[in-house]
């Protein structure tokens, strides 16, 4: 049981490049979400999903796309990377929406955009 | 979601109780108070939550005022490993948007 797995752990991009941050969970969780954390700040919600085929926007969705084709995976796509997207990205999951006490987080992806 | 207000930082002596305050004056009747912490740059970790009664688990105690406008997280015997950023969050059970503010940076000193 690996929990929530994020890849890669570190990534450096040039402005304008695109990439996909991967998130996978093996706990059969319906709810998955993506957060970003800028230096010295709390986590801000980017996108979330309450099940396969269902996604919705969080606080800061601009510049990011998501899809949820399977229960296990919830990739985050940066369409055209900008320096303002330099941040640490966390993926989280729980069995069902609203169960914040059972929210599991991945170890994060540190992204730098030059 | 109701907004929360926490002090930006606080120090605590090792072995003493750490009392972390949180104001949530606009909390609604169906919103819970959650506490998470983030050690180093790891993903946040759930600590405790409550609706209106005081709660205790193996990690901490949560005291919620009768009017529910504020709460206090108590770490009964702080250790160096409790040094972390602590987040106070309010959300309802049918709200899917768990958002973290800036939190309180707690430093436990030997």
Task: Report on this structure.
The complex is a heterodimer of chains A (114) and B (110). By secondary structure, chain A is an all-beta fold. Chain A is globular. The termini of chain A are far apart. In chain B, the strands form two sheets. Chain B has a five-stranded mixed sheet with strand order 1-9-8-3-4, with no helix packed on it. In chain B, a hairpin with a 4-residue loop joins strand 5 and strand 6. The interface between A and B is medium-sized, with 30 and 25 residues.
Helices and strands in order:
The complex is a heterodimer of chains A (114) and B (110).
Chain A: E1 4-7, E2 10-13, E3 19-25, E4 31-37, E5 43-51, E6 54-57, E7 64-66, E8 76-78, E9 87-94, E10 104-105, E11 109-113
Parallel strand pairs in A: 2-11
Antiparallel strand pairs in A: 1-3, 3-8, 4-5, 4-9, 5-6, 7-8, 9-10, 9-11
Chain B: E1 9-13, E2 18-23, E3 31-38, E4 45-50, E5 55-56, E6 61-64, E7 70-75, E8 84-92, E9 104-109
Parallel strand pairs in B: 1-9
Antiparallel strand pairs in B: 2-7, 3-4, 3-8, 5-6, 6-7, 8-9
Q: Keyphrases for this structure?
A:
heterodimer, A: 114 residues, mainly beta, seven-stranded mixed sheet, 11 strands, 49% strand, B: 110 residues, five-stranded mixed sheet, 9 strands, globular
Low-confidence stretches of chain B: none
Biggest β-sheet strands, sense, barrel of chain B: 5 strands, mixed
Radius of gyration of chain A: 13 Å
What is the number of helices of chain B?
0
Mean pLDDT of chain A: 94
Can you write the helix and strand succession of chain A as a string?
Answer: EEEEEEEEEEE
Query: Are there runs of chain A of 5+ residues with pLDDT below 50, and where?
Result: none
For this entry, what is the oligomeric state of its chains?
heterodimer
Secondary structural class of chain B = mainly beta
Give a summary of the structure in a few sentences.
The complex is a heterodimer of chains A (114) and B (110). Helix content of chain A is 0%, strand content 49%.
